[in-house]
Amino acid sequence: MFDKIMAAQQQAEEIKKRLDTVSVFGEVEGGAIRVTATANKAVTSIEINDDFFKSADKEELEELLLTAINKALAQADQVSASEMQAATKSMLGGLGGMFGS
């Protein structure tokens, strides 16, 4: 049983490392602002189109930036949940023998 728990912990660490390599994006205004993050919710870059930046006011820029970040983080949640769901199915399949299944 201990071996299966250790294997599950190792698999969780592998998933976390894999999620660090998956990029997700949030865009607004047709790509005027683009936020890139990892599936572990670490923002890695923010790109703002020069023309949009010159014409936008501070409040508009802040609001759209928040929207783009939230879109990227929501996508990160979806990717992470999918990975965890797949891993859980795999782990439960492997743990089935522990419960007499």
Would you kindly provide a written description of the structure presented here, covering whatever features stand out?
With 101 residues, the protein is an alpha+beta fold. The chain has a single domain (22-92), classed as Nucleoid-associated protein YbaB-like domain (Ybab, Chain: A, 2-Layer Sandwich). It is built from 3 helices and 3 strands; from the N terminus they run αβββαα. It has helices spanning 2-20, 50-55, 58-95, and strands at residues 23-28, 33-38, 43-48.
In a few lines, what is going on in this structure?
The chain has helices at residues 2-20, 50-55, 58-95, and strands spanning 23-28, 33-38, 43-48. The chain is α+β, with helices and mostly antiparallel strands and 101 residues long.
Task: List its traits.
Ybab, Chain: A, alpha+beta, three-stranded antiparallel beta sheet, 101 residues
